[in-house]
Amino acid sequence: MDDLLERARRAGIETQYWDAFGRLRHVAPAVLSRIVDVLGAGDKRRILPHTIVIRGQAPHEIRLISTQGLPFHWEILSDQKIAEGEANSPVVALPPALPIGIFRLRVTVSAPPGHVSEESPLIVSPHQTYQGSSAWPHRMWALSVQLYAVRSQRNWGHGDFSDLLELIDLAADLGASGLGLNPLHALFDDKAEEPSPYYPNSRLFLNPLYIDLGAVPEFPGLDAAGLQDDIARLRRGSFIDYPTVAETKWRALRLAHETFRSSAPAERRRLFEQFRKSHPSRLNRFACFEFLRRKFAKPWWEWPDEYRRPDEGALIRLRRDEKGAIEFFEFVQWLAHSQLEQCRVRAARMPIGLYLDIAVGVRSDGFDAWCDQDAVLAGMAVGAPPDQLNSAGQNWGLAGFNPLGLEHRQFEPFRRLLRAAMQYAGAVRLDHVLGLQRLYLIPHGVPASEGTYMRLPFNALLAVTALASTENTCVVVGEDLGTVPENFRETLADWGIWSYQVMLFERAADGAFTAPGNYREKALVTFGTHDTATFAGWWDHHDLTVKRALNIDPGESDDDRGRARDALRHALSERGIHATDFASIARYLADTPSRLLVISMEDILGVRDQVNLPGTLNEHPNWRQPLPVALEELRNQKGLTCIADVMRSAGRSCGA
To answer: Residue 651, CB half-sphere, CA atoms under 13 Å: how many?
Structure first.
């Protein structure tokens, strides 16, 4: 047992922790053993720290471990040698003004009978993440939309990138600084029962269901494709019919690809080849994975041996044998990228532009987990311990990063996923940003309440985030809700990551709502999230009724909610606001000093059902509810123009 505890400690696994209710939870030895075994934690004695972080251009010293005064040679390496030196003391004095980037520090110690060498990642980062342009308004607002939920006269029963172009124009005309969206990550489109945008196949690629086929030159049109009746049914549906949307779009995409292969003009072919060359191996791997998972129809760890890992030789042979089929998936990603890039360019008329969400993990049977097996944890899921939101804990079914694998790979998998979103966005939100410091791990088959935390290289991940943020001129917001470790928010603020403050949770011990002046400046504020009640649902207790009907503990009684409503009335009246509609909430939040206020379309339109009800799958229409108003009618909505007026009066409107 003592050996297990020591191995867990070396691997950064917490053997006990305090939960949200102030209870000390001891982790079962069987759970510890399984996590330690998956991590492969057999930490040997090292000369160097696991990772070295330098912020800014200041000189930096690294104290070596166990060199006992022996002479050594050090080198900073990238594609070429950056710097080198010799020393006898156990301290490496690195030169000042090193270039920003991720390098390797190699130390070679002269120790009889030979030499001992060791390498560690060396991250030279900006002091902070990108904080926005000096031309930006100091206080801004953004409109947020679940893009899949948008209804329009021309889409196929699922919002698409042409809808997004119109939403961008609408948001900009209203004076918003940005438009926020749900994650656009690639999903398993053929598994309609799993439509959550937070359950991605890959965070590096895009969901093809957002492609507008009508804007694809190679698509012959609905009549020629024989899809008129299918599309008409999809547009009439009360809920988003993912199986039919996916089946219909894939038929249309295959028709478009056939036309592209047979008769695409030279300029289209040139653009496609340019896109392929910009993703030298990753795109080909993704295309091969998509082909293989359909071919074998089982998780990748059950595939034939030659494909269980992304072996280059096997994939070259596969592409040679299935060239057209593999190219199809590359073609689809090219279309998605081209249309979203159009949206990015259009959104540049707003200071922030697009504000995108990055999921905290990936599905274990998806592309990212297959492609980066050494950097993604298998055999366990990420979740949350018991808290006020869910007394049984939460299992999100997602695989997280392996900290040892990240260090071995110079943090490239993490840097790559940040770039994948930031290339389109002026701001991103890191879902469950606590996962940069520690992840709550639940071995498969273990109840969510019996998992434990694993520590990650927090400083290194923050440095990589700052590096990606400044490279892409993209603000970073950290979703810092839940059981937050001591000084966590202060550390994020020091690195320039904006906090995420949700009005529903900003309450004192006596239930009073936090006054606007007490919100943080470097923060995004909003009324609720996709996992909480909408304002309309919260105000009339609808969320409590729904949960009780599903035998879910709502966490509060009707009397509790009545007192919360009274507390809200009091908070509003203290600000001279005497109505209790959503415009009043927007006015209250608009008075905060926080840099960005995000207003959800569901709240503006008075939607009662929340977007997602945690702890349910099919019991509630999670991620399936279309907006009650079509895109073409949004400009006529009084609620939307009222919000724009509130933002203008509060000085948050662009040009105000």
So the answer is: 8
| DSSP, res 647 | H
Q: What is the pLDDT of residues 19-36, one digit of tens each?
A: 878 888 899 999 999 988
| Residue 508 CA neighbour count, 13 Å, CB half | 9
Least confident piece of the model among 153-162, 171-180, 369-378 = 369-378
**Sequence-separated contacts (24+) of 311-314 with Cβ below 8 Å:** 312/281
Instruction: Give me the residues paired with residue 77 across strands.
Output: 81, 104
Q: How many CB atoms lie within 10 A of CB 492?
A: 28
124 close to 101: Cβ distance less than 8 angstroms: yes
In this structure, how many other beta carbons lie within 10 angstroms of the beta carbon of residue 338? 16
CA-CA-CA-CA torsion sign (294, 297, 299, 305)? negative
Query: In the 3-class helix/strand/coil scheme, how is 562-581 assigned residue by residue?
Result: HHHHHHHHHHHHHCCCCCCC
Contact 339, 162 (CB under 8 A): yes
Quote the DSSP letter at residue 186.
Answer: E
Give the CA distances from residue 329 to residues 257, 260, 285, 286, 287, in Å, rounded to whole numbers and listed in that order. 9, 13, 10, 8, 5
Mean pLDDT, all residues of the chain: 93
Residue 42: is its pLDDT beyond 60? no
Q: What single DSSP character describes residue 513?
A: B
* Of 553, 544, 503, the residue nearest 386 (C-alpha): 553
Whether 380 contacts 35, CB under 8 Å: yes
DSSP H/E element including 180: strand 178-181
Residue 125's SS3 state is: strand
In whole angstroms, how far apart are CA 451 and each of 10, 381, 640? 18, 9, 44
pLDDT at position 43 is 55
> Counting beta carbons within 10 angstroms of the beta carbon of residue 157, is it exposed (0 to 12), middle (13 to 18) or buried (19 or more)?
buried
- Of 327 and 486, the structure prediction assigns the larger pLDDT to 327
Tokens of 380: 């366990």
Average pLDDT over residues 127-145: 96
**Structural domains of the chain sorted by starting position, each given as residue range(s) with its CATH number in brackets:** 57-125 (2.60.40.10), 137-159+499-643 (no CATH), 211-339 (no CATH)
Beta bridge partners of 167: none
242-263 and 228-236 are packed helices; what angle lies between their axes, rounded to 10 degrees? 150
Task: Answer whether residue 577 shows pLDDT above 60.
Answer: yes
Structure tokens at 10: 């070396």
SS3 string, 38-80, reads HHCCCCCCCCCCCCEEEECCCCEEEECCCCCCCCEEEEEECCC
Residues β-bridged to residue 181: 145
> Residue 655 above 80 pLDDT?
no
Angle between helices 2-11 and 29-39 (to 10 degrees): 50
